[in-house]
Amino acid sequence: MSLRLNQRTNLSQNRALKKSSHFLSIKWSVLSIALTTAVFGQSVSAESLLTANQPTVREIQDRSSFEQILEQIRTYQANQSSWQTQQNMASAQLKQSGLWANPSISIEQTGLQSNQDQELAIGISQPLDLFGQRKAAQKVAKLSANQVDLEQQRYNAELALIVQYAWSQVALWQLEKSLIAEQLQVSQQNLDATEKRYQAGSIAQVDVERVRIAHLENQRIYQQADLQLQVAQQQLASFWGSDSNQFRISPSVNELWSRATQVKVDQEQIENLFERSLQLEAQRQQASIEQLKAKSRPQPTMTLGVNRTRSVDQNTENQLRLGVEIPLNIFNKQKYGIQIAEAKQTLIQQQQRFYRQQNQMDIEIRLAELKGLQAQFQQLNNQQIPLATQVQQKTLQGFRLGKFAVTDVQQATVQLQDVRLRKVQLLKQAWQLSVEVQSARMGLPVEQITAKDALMQLNQRVWQQSNAFPNQLGE
Fold this sequence. Notes:
The protein has 475 residues and is of the alpha+beta class. Helices cover 71% and strands 9% of the residues. The chain has a single domain, classed as Outer membrane efflux proteins (OEP).
């Protein structure tokens, strides 16, 4: 009896031990899963962050060619512009300036009573353009048409620069985002290595939190770069009438740099549109002087008519009348207008010489600065970035082996991040200088190129020019 009781007791104890061991195994499994999740949670978060906001392959539109983008934008903007209307108005104005002055007819009768002699005079008067007033007006109208052509040329040049600047912003933000993504992966590696050292008990928890703070900051910087890229993409897409930012351009770093520095070639082939406008204004003043001189001369008027005389006894006599009326040019009403136009013409010529000299000096200064940036970029890209990458990798490897402290890894990581972002900053400075040089060579204000609403301002100026086009020449 006691033997059976002991066997039952041992059996109950064995079952209890098995349940206890099974419960402990489940408990340790849960703890291990929680620990694994805590260690690698940041890595999963970083991977999900890097893959967030990435469009699918079907959503991405390949617009890598700048020339294709520019051509598409020009086609879209041409449908919104009013250049054809302005050309038609300038053509109509030129035709109107060639019209002759209308003749005038005069009818005069005397002797309205039947017992009186009656005389009927009918005459047609026509002003004679002997001194070229009509020709001078045509020349002024022709220059107005040339002004429309110049404004259209200016519009196309400014549109190309605006698109080029917006395209460069998308490319630069793509590059910066990719570099920050690489830095985020480095930061994730630092965090993983720090977690393992902490689990091994070789570093304190505060060191892990310090690295985690740096990793979270890198995540914020990545999100900020992604936001700026989306804004730049949406702005560029709006130029061809789209509200989507799901497209990607793919210029390399070398292509970005070469496009920023290629402004040094073909300098003589670029026409300065501001200087061209000064030349056109000088020609307009000269045409205005010629027109005022033509108006200052006495313009004769020829009259051709018939006088019919009827006497009381019903005798009728017809006489042909031919006359010329010449105004007395005692007071020259155009004298001071001519002086003002001549003063304007002289002033424009002085402005043109000063502008050409000053503008060339500004261009040379910017080109010298661009050349200095090129030397810095080559040193940074060929020496500093590879060296900083090598130092960071070796420091992280030594930290994993316990040879370096957390501060050493953080310092090497910050150095790598600084040189990578400095590379983007040099590219941004080079593109800014490139736009400034191209704007100066074309005679365009750079602030109108780099403004966020640059294209809207450009279209508004064109619309204002169309609405302000004079109905009559000289208004």
